[in-house]
Amino acid sequence: MKRRAVVSLASVLCGAILSGGCGNPKSMADLEAQNQNLRGQLNRSNADLTSAMKERDLINQRLAAALREAASLSSELAGRPAPETAPAGWTAVPGGGMIAIEENILFAPGKATLRDEARKTLDAIVSTLGGEYGNKDIMVFGHTDDRPIKKSGWQDNWQLSTERGLAVVRYLKEHGVVPDRLVAAGCGEFRPRVANSSEPNRLTNRRVEIFAIDAQPRTGREK
Question: Are residues 156 and 110 both part of a single domain?
Fold first, then answer.
């Protein structure tokens, strides 16, 4: 009786196993394919992780290099003097400042006599030279464009630019700037701001530049 029951139970279990596919070759192949697919995904994920870690290390190296460079620049800048500042209208240059005045504010074309309208501009400069730049040398440079002298009576642009620089220097002296601070010079057409290729460009090049700069390194004059 017991033997019959065992045989009957075995039959039932075998049927259940067979009906569940445990013995189905196709299902085994599917499981193997899934396994291979999962292994492939894992391998790709591992490769991506390895690549990401390498990129992270490279970024960390670049960041460390950038931090070292920034620290070096900060140290270098800390040892430098504070940048020059300049009054309104002036441009800071090493040792002082510079202001450029266009020809039409100071002179008529081809002339070296100051216009009456130039006084307001030059008076403001005199004030600055006696205040912020009271211990500087004053160097005045006249500049022209490249058109040759024809009817104005000057020998060349060098002479015209020098006479204009001298006219400004004389005005500064007459209005209180100490003479031993003053230098007059002319550059002619040889130091243009822009190419003399149009009338607006030529107007830009016709100017007087006034530099207020440290005395001793430039001229040896006692402050």
Answer: yes
- Alpha helices per DSSP H over 21-130: 25-78, 103-106, 118-130
Question: pLDDT confidence of 130, banded at 50, 70, 90?
Answer: very high
Sign of the four-CA dihedral 67, 73, 75, 77: negative
Distance between CA atoms of 102 and 196, rounded to whole angstroms? 15
The residue with tokens 């002619």 is: 188
Tokens of 146: 């490249």
Confidence of residue 84 (pLDDT cuts 50, 70, 90): confident
Q: Which two tokens stand for residue 83?
A: 């940048």
Q: What is the pLDDT of residue 175?
A: 97
User: Do 72 and 112 belong to one domain?
Assistant: no
Query: Which comes out higher in pLDDT, residue 197 or 76?
Result: 197
Q: What is the DSSP string of 163-185?
A: HHHHHHHHHHHHTT--GGGEEEE
This model's pTM is above 0.85: no
Size of the chain in residues: 223
**Amino acid code (one letter) for 168:** V
Domain with residue 160: its CATH number is 3.30.1330.60
Pairing of strands 137-143, 182-186: parallel
Range of the domain at 183: 91-219
